[in-house]
Amino acid sequence: MKKMNLKKLVAFGCAAAMTLSMVGCGSKADTSATDTTTKTTAEAADAGQTEEELPVYKIAIVKQLDHASLDEIANAVAAELDQLAKDNNVEIDYDIYSGQNDQTTLKQIGDQAIADGVDAIIPIATLAAQVMTVCAQDTQTPVIFAAISDPEAAELTDIDYVTGTSDALDTNKIMEMMLAQNPDIKNVGLLYSLSEANSAKPIADAKAYLDDKGIAYTEQTANTNDEVIAAASALVADKVDAIFTPTDNVVMAAELAIYEDLAKAGIPHYTGADSFVRNGAFATCGVNYTDLGSQTADLAYIAMTDGMNDLEDYYVTEGGIITVNTETAATLGIDYSVFKDLGTLVEVQTTEE
C-alpha cells in the first residue's frame, strides 16, 4: 500500500505534465444516466490550429449522489479540467453524472462510459469509486477517485489502474474542538449511516477518544433522509450535549432538514466536511473540497497523458481548516473564538446549495 501527500503530487505533476495550475471554482454540468450534455473545454490555438486537430480526452465525472460536498468537488474538477485544457492546448470533453446513491444506476453509468471509450473516470465518494473500479476492470481505464476517507478499507488500493484523493478525517481534532468549546460535555451523540464506508473508521476513532476521556456517547444510525431526521430527533430527546457526524453522504444529504431543530435545542453539530456547515451544521475541521477536486483533476490529467505507472495508490489532501457557521453559532449562543488557536478559521453562513 502506498500513499502520498498532495504537495508531492503537485510537484510530480508539474514535472510530468506542463502547467498544471490550480483554480478555485467552476461551472457545473450535472447529468443523469439518461441525460448527457458534453462540455468541450478547449479552443483552437491562435496559431491557426483547428479544434479538430487538438488532442482530445474524454472523461466521465460520476457523483455518488447529489449534495453540497459532491457537487462542490464535481464543479472544481470541471473547472480544473477547463484550465488544464487551456494551459496544455488540448481538448477535454467531460460529462457529469449522478448515480442517485443507487448501485444499479452507478453500474449503468460506468458501463456506458466504458462503452463510450472514455480516457478516464473520476468517481466521487466511496460507492461510486467501488462501482467504477469494477466497470473499468476489463479495459483498465484509469479510475481517479475523489474524497475517499479510507481507501484501504474501501478496497481501492493495490489496483494498477486506480488512484485518487483521500479526505481522511482527523477525528481527534474535531473531538478537541468539541471539548475546547464545552469542557463539561457529558454525552456525545454519534449520528451516521451504517451503509457509508467513510463513517466506519471516524466513528471508531470517536468512540476510542470518548472512552479515553470517560465521556458517554449515544449512537443513532440512518440510511435515508427520513431516518436521519428521526435519528436526529432521538438525539435531541436524549439531550446529548453535542453531535458528531463524519464525512457521511447520507447524513449530509439531510443536513438542511435537521440543522434548525438541533440548533434550537442547543446542540452543536460537529461534522466531517465544510459542506455540512454551509448547510447549517455548527462546525468542522477538514479539507477544502474545491482544492481536493482541483487536485483530483490534475491527477487524472497525469494518468491520461503520462500513464499510471509512477502514481501512488492515493494522495491525502491536507486538512486543518476549521469552518464555523456564524448563523448557527448565534442560534446556539456559542462563542467560537476558542477555535482560532486550533487551526485556520473560516466563517460561513447557511446556503441551500
UniProtKB/TrEMBL annotation:
The keyword Signal applies. Gene3D superfamilies: 3.40.50.2300. Residues 1-29 form the signal peptide. Keywords: Signal. InterPro entries: ABC_transpt-TYRBP-like, Peripla_BP_I. PANTHER family: ABC TRANSPORTER, SUBSTRATE-BINDING LIPOPROTEIN, ABC TRANSPORTER, SUBSTRATE-BINDING LIPOPROTEIN-RELATED. This is ABC transporter substrate-binding protein. It comes from Anaerosacchariphilus hominis.
